[in-house]
Every structure is written in structure tokens, then in C-alpha cells.
């Protein structure tokens, strides 16, 4: 599928960049966008609202007209309705008592446990229209307190036993029975629900975060039109030869700022890398909503071989689905994910460390944020922990898949004011299945097809997409799936980066 777009030649931009670097006598990581370009997202618009405290303003994400994704005048194209009708479903417990959340199979059988909703906390899952859920007391799974039927575009559902419809006296009695802390928790959710109505009326989207949540502290690459390209240079060039085993060694995570490499300083094991002073990474827009990009040759064949070698002796185990442990007597095996996986930490060796540094440059994030830090490094973060998870190595055999899901979660939004969430996902493909195994974005916004956007695995290629919007809301459109492998097998790695901090 080809899209017409006008852009300055990437080759020309790189030539100019190289000449500048040669003139300056050093190579510095650079990119095709300025800070102003990152900060001037036209999709962010000022929303004015009043929740009873006087007029307020909020910079909200408003999805651009689909015509602009083709560089056509607004209104000239119509978005296609996707065949996939899945949807986010978030459930909020507005009571001071924990409750259990279940999915109802509606066949007379027992409900499937989803999670425990702690007082004033939330939980959720990817769901479909007409699916039904219910909550029970924590210690009584047979008494149903409230029931919902999923009805898009609604994605946020409230369990509110405090407000009694059409009965102010009963409502006041319930409020009087709350402790001061419980009343404050309830009030925050009332405000959040009110803000959600204003947000939906302004943007057409549900607010999946909890108001107020700050906009992302990290940069988001622009995805203005299909085929748009950005470039990034990095000193973290490709390994083209495998170092001797005795030269590869674990890195002490306590080194902190001693791991910082100056721009003019040789890279780790530089003698085994390409002799080019920098590596160019080109991001090509695959989807504008959600924002998804492909980066060819992010990994070299040598790096891919090394990652595959690391699996030797690592016991692979069945993948878990986030939020699947409910601690109930009716826990059961869930079949949304059937792959196998293990974890590889940045400190494993110098090659894995290089991949993290390269990813940091791609994301325009200081590499120090993606490792344990010394106290003097980024003290404003309030933590010395990495915002990046360990690399998750995943293997899919024939027939194995991961059905459509989101990488963000819902738990902890109330108790943690920072509301830490997965911000960006970087998929690194390690092989090419003979057939199947594509990464699919089933709800991508476009004007040509109702089918999902399928990304074919290619050795060394990376795919970047964001789970958050520019206003701090979660992106429901970031729904994605690993389609079943039909012939062969599939190997890849996931790198998840959080904003503003990592919370396990």
C-alpha cells in the first residue's frame, strides 16, 4: 500500500548531519525533530471544563481527521469500521471494601475470576460488546453486588454503592458512615467520573487514566501521516563480530554513574563493531492511531545470534498474563497467551547493555533512566530504579498466539499519584516464521480496510508503539495481538518502558 507524501530526503538529511559532525570533529546522537517539534503536537487541544471548582483547562488529545493521515484535506476520507470489535474495559471500585471482579460466561457456569478490586482501586481487561462482568464481596463469591454489560463506546464502569439514585437521605447516610480518608477517596472518584464525562464529550474517547494524571514526561514521536519518516543517530553501532566469551561479562548494577559514556568515548567492545562512527535508525510510520513505527535493522545479525545463544540453558516457561492472579478458589488456566518466555536483564553483558543504550537513543530518553542509578543521577525521579523492564524473550511454536490485548494496566491508579504505566513497547524480531506470526493492530484508524494492520516479522527489525497518548491518557487503540504461527516458529523480544517511573 503506497501513500503520497512530501518530505525532505532522509538521505539528504543524513548527509547534512554527517557533514556537521565531521566539521565539529565529534559524533553526537541526534534526530530529525527538535524539542519544539516534539512539544507542538497539533493533536493536543485546550479543553475548558468546570467540575464545580471554577473553570479549568486541560490539554487533551483529539484524534486528527483520518484524511490527514493521507495528507488529504480534512473530511475528504471516512474512517473504516474495524472488523475487530474488542474494547478496553476498566472497572472502578468506589467503595471502602475490597470486591472480586468476574467475567460471566452466561452459560450457567461459574464466573471466570479477573482480579480483586481493592478499596477505591481499579482493574480491567480487553473485552467485547455484550460481555458481562460482575463483582462480589471479597469473602463471598456467590453474592453478586453489581453487574455490567459491555457497551462501547463506554469503557469505564463504576461500582458505586455510596450514591443511591433518587434517594438523597440514603446517600447522605452512606457518606456519613465513611471515615475522612474514605470520604476523600470517594470524592476523588466522583471528580474523576465527572472529568471523564467532560473528556469524552470533548475527545470522543473514554478517560482510562485517573484524573489528574500528568502528560508523559518522555517524548513521543510524531505520527502525522502514513509513511512519514524520522531519523535518529546513535553512537551505539552494530556488533558485526562476536567477542570472545571471556570478554563478555556481567555488568555490576551498582556502578551507577560510572556506566556513563561520554560522546567522544569509545563504546563497549568497540573493536567488534562496525567502524562507522554512528548508526542511523529510521522510524517509518505504520499507523497514526495508534502511533506505531517500524525500524529496519535495529539489531545486527551478530546481535540476533547472540540473543538466541543466550537462550541456551535458560529454562523457558509458560507466559503469564498481567493481572491474571486473583487469589480465588476458582482460579483457572487462561488461554489468551500460549507462548513461552524468559527474561534477559540489561546487566547480562555488554551486547545486551548496548541494545538498551540504542533503544534509549531511539526513544530520546537518557540511558541512565533505563538502569539502576547513583543518588545524584536524576534525583527528581524520587527513585533510583530503571524505567525499563528486563527484555522479555518470547518463543511461539505452531498454533501459539497472544490474542488482542493492551500493554497498560489499571491497578494502582488511586494509591499512587504518579500513576506509573507502560509508556512504550519496542518489539525486536529475531527470526522470520515461514507463515503467520504477524503482529497485528486490529483497530488501527484508516480509510481503506476494515482488516487489522499486520506487521511481518523480519530478522533484526523493531516495531515501536505507544500505550499512552500525549495528554497522559491510555491509548485504547494500542490494542495489539501476536497472530498464530502457521508454519515454523517465532522468536522476539519485548522491551517495555514506563512513564513516569517503573512500578512492578
Cα Rg: 24 Å
Structural class: alpha+beta
State the helix count: 6
What is the strand content? 25-35%
Q: In what order do the strands lie side by side in the largest sheet? A: 10-11-12-21-17-24-15-14-13
What does the main sheet amount to?
A: 9 strands, antiparallel
**Average of pLDDT:** 90
Globular, elongated, flat, extended or rod-shaped: what is the shape? globular
Span between N and C termini? 40 Å
Poorly predicted regions: 1-27, 324-334
DSSP, total strands:
24
- Element-level helix/strand string: HHEEEEEEEEEHHEEEHEEHEEEEEEEEEE
Give helix % range.
10-25%
Architecture overview:
It is a single chain. The protein has helices spanning 10-24, 35-39, 168-176, 180-203, 301-310, 350-363, and strands at residues 44-50, 55-61, 87-93, 99-104, 112-117, 122-127, 132-137, 146-149, 156-159, 229-234, 279-287, 292-295, 317-318, 340-344, 391-396, 402-405, 421-429, 435-436, 439-441, 453-455, 462-466, 480-482, 485-487, 490-499. It is an alpha+beta fold and 504 residues long. The strands form six sheets. Strands 10-11-12-21-17-24-15-14-13 form a nine-stranded antiparallel sheet. It has a four-stranded antiparallel sheet with strand order 5-4-7-8, with no helix packed on it. The radius of gyration is 24 Å and the shape is globular. The longest helix is centred in the middle third of the chain and has 24 residues, at 180-203.
